[in-house]
């Protein structure tokens, strides 16, 4: 009977299909006295099939039978991650690492739990260890890059994403994240090149078109931005920000009617988007629809009472209408929200000069 049990267990190890593995390990378990490694390996196969509750149960039995099986702790930690028990995952994965300090995957799973617990320093340390043990672990470089980007270490993120791309040059998402880090470093040309590669690898990557549109807008390639936003809209016609941003690019090209049409569509899709109201107000202001602009800026402020730019632009519109007290009030609100808003001080000073309040204007100009 023991020989048959070993045979089932070996068949489970040799099988490549996780379903077959579960079948063979189950027969091993049922054949004779409990085999902790059969439970541990069946738990691993259940993780592969996303049966995390089943994996947790099997690994727990394995640990009860033999508390020295590192794999059982690692797989139970993996299952707990999937079940959002991150503290429990940390405990199990720490034990797995203690029993087998050469298991790069255990460090990687431990890092994931640390990420979910917002312990980014700990997660980076975990990925450092995983990479030291397995320098070809693409996910470790990618995820470490994500953490570095999250903590605004964009240069470090670029190094990690670059390594991930070197190891897997067909991963469109790695280029997209590399692009984001470049954009945060104001390397817009580099970001555009990254998005070009991402789109070449995945022509349906909506975010790549949308974000490349942002980059093209930033370098004042407004026609290019419009093309990218249009492609994003083609891929997802319900995404309000794509309409809003395309409208903003049209405004920059003085196509005010087109900008207003796109802005109106954006608000129809997402009536709680303050940025869309700001962009629509900007287009109406340039089209000399001052009352329409004030309406849109007011809506932006209602949605986000801390939106300094909306107060500022409404102040500019009121200035055009010679509503000087209203303009001063709006500029003052913008300054209260953002005391470093230099243009708001200058414009408030200009309005005060129009009101013949020269002495009170001087401090604003000195700001």
Could you explain how this protein is built, in words?
This protein has 367 residues and is mainly α. Among the domains are: 238-305, Tetratricopeptide repeat domain (Serine Threonine Protein Phosphatase 5, Tetratricopeptide repeat), CATH 1.25.40.10; 307-367, Tetratricopeptide repeat domain (Serine Threonine Protein Phosphatase 5, Tetratricopeptide repeat). The protein has helices at 2-14, 18-31, 36-48, 52-65, 70-82, 86-99, 104-116, 120-133, 138-150, 154-167, 172-184, 188-201, 206-218, 222-235, 240-252, 256-269, 274-286, 290-303, 308-320, 324-337, 342-354, 358-366. The termini are far apart. The mean pLDDT is 96.
Indicate the overall shape.
elongated
What is the strand tally?
0
- Helical content band: over 70%
Mean of residue pLDDT values: 96
Structural class: mainly alpha
What is the CATH class name of one domain? Mainly Alpha
> Span from first to last CA?
89 Å
Strand content: under 5%
| Cα Rg | 29 Å
What's the architecture of one domain, going by CATH?
Answer: Alpha Horseshoe
- The SSE string, one letter per element, is HHHHHHHHHHHHHHHHHHHHHH
The profile of the biggest β sheet is: none
């Amino acid at each position: 009977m023991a020989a048959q049990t070993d045979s089932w267990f070996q068949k489970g190890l040799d099988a490549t299909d996780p379903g077959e593995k579960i079948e063979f390990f189950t027969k091993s378990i049922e054949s004779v006295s409990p085999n902790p490694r059969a439970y541990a390996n069946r738990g691993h196969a259940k993780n592969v099939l996303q049966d995390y509750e089943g994996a947790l149960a099997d690994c727990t039995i394995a640990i009860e039978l033999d508390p020295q099986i590192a794999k059982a702790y690692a797989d139970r930690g993996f299952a707990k991650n999937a079940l959002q028990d991150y503290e429990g995952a940390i405990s199990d994965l720490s034990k797995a690492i203690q029993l087998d300090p050469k298991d790069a995957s255990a460090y990687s799973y431990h890092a994931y739990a640390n990420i979910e617990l917002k312990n980014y320093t700990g997660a980076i340390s975990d990925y450092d260890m995983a990479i030291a043990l397995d320098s070809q672990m693409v996910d470790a470089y990618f995820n470490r890059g994500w953490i570095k980007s999250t903590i605004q270490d964009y240069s470090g993120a670029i190094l990690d994403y670059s390594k991930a791309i070197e190891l897997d040059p067909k991963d469109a998402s790695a280029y997209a994240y590399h692009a984001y880090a470049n954009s945060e470093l104001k390397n817009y040309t580099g970001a555009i090149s990254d998005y070009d590669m991402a789109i070449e690898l995945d022509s349906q990557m909506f975010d790549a078109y949308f974000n490349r549109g942002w980059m093209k807008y930033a370098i004042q390639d407004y026609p290019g931005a419009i093309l990218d936003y249009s492609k994003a809209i083609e891929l997802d016609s319900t995404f309000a920000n794509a309409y809003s941003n395309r409208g903003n690019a049209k405004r920059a090209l003085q196509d005010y009617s087109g900008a207003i049409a796109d802005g109106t569509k954006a608000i129809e899709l997402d009536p709680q988007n303050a940025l869309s109201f700001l962009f629509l107000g900007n287009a109406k202001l340039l089209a000399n629809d001052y009352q329409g602009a004030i309406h849109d800026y007011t809506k932006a402020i209602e949605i986000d009472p801390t939106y300094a730019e909306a107060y500022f632009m409404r102040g500019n519109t009121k200035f055009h209408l010679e509503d000087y007290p209203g303009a001063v009030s709006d500029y003052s609100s913008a300054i209260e929200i953002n005391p470093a808003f230099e243009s708001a001080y200058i414009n408030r000073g200009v309005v005060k000069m129009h009101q013949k309040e020269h002495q009170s204007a001087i401090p604003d100009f000195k700001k």
